[in-house]
């Protein structure tokens, strides 16, 4: 019998440890503490998904409202979603190597775009790191203007929700 395919489901705060472990394994220095992921899930549950096969987490997609052009600090708690949030920030997307190529990022983006529009937000934003801007360009993101200078390996990007 073939293994059931992975599916996106809403992330739970209890998933934060597994999310942090996967991020550390795949992202290395860009992985963050479990507390960061737990806070994002608590602040914007409709923007946070995990790719699960049974109890195994094979990916995550964490996002939340945030002011366009603003860049949250890495591995830092937000405290709250700002009242002037006019963008939907894609904080962290990780797909385990064995689950890549199944169109999971595109399907999660579609789900998140619905969540953003439900809150009256019409732009998705993100910071692409380490050459990931090529990947995000294939999903409709274009370079934009960040409020502060970014390191050479980082690109601020936006697309319609």
What do these coordinates show?
By secondary structure, the chain is α+β, with helices and mostly antiparallel strands. The chain has one domain (7-160): Gcn5-related N-acetyltransferase (GNAT) (Aminopeptidase, 3-Layer(aba) Sandwich). The chain has helices spanning 16-27, 34-43, 104-118, 133-137, and strands at residues 7-10, 48-53, 56-66, 87-95, 123-129, 142-143, 154-160. β2 and β3 (56-66) form a beta hairpin. The protein starts with 6 loop residues before the first strand and ends with a strand.
Task: Point out poorly predicted stretches.
Answer: none
Helix percent reads 25-40%
Radius of gyration: 15 Å
Count of beta strands: 7
Q: Please state the overall shape, judged from the principal axes of the Cα atoms.
A: globular
Proportion of strand residues: 25-35%
Give the CA-CA distance, first to last residue: 39 Å
**How would you name the CATH homologous superfamily?**
Gcn5-related N-acetyltransferase (GNAT)
Number of domains: 1
Quaternary state of the chains? single chain
Strand order of the largest sheet: 1-2-3-4-5-7-6
- Named at the architecture level, the CATH assignment is 3-Layer(aba) Sandwich
SSE pattern, N- to C-terminal: EHHEEEHEHEE
CATH class division: Alpha Beta
Mean pLDDT: 96
> So how many helices?
4
Which structural class is indicated by helix and strand composition? alpha+beta
What is the CATH topology descriptor? Answer: Aminopeptidase
Main beta sheet:
7 strands, mixed
């Amino acid at each position: 019998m073939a293994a059931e395919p992975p599916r996106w489901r809403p992330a739970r705060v209890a998933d934060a440890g597994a999310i942090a472990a996967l991020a550390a394994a795949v992202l290395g220095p860009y992985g963050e503490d479990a507390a960061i992921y737990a806070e994002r899930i608590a602040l914007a549950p409709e923007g946070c998904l995990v790719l699960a096969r049974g109890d195994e987490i094979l990916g995550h997609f964490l996002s939340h409202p945030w002011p366009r052009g603003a860049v949250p600090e890495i591995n830092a708690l937000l405290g709250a979603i700002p009242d002037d949030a006019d963008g939907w920030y894609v904080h962290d997307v990780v797909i385990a190597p064995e689950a890549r190529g199944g169109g999971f990022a595109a399907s999660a983006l579609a789900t998140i775009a619905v969540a953003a529009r439900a809150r009256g937000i019409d732009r998705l934003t993100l910071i692409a790191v380490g050459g990931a801007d090529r990947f995000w360009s294939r999903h409709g993101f274009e370079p934009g203007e960040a409020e502060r200078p970014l390191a050479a390996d980082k690109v601020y990007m936006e697309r319609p929700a």
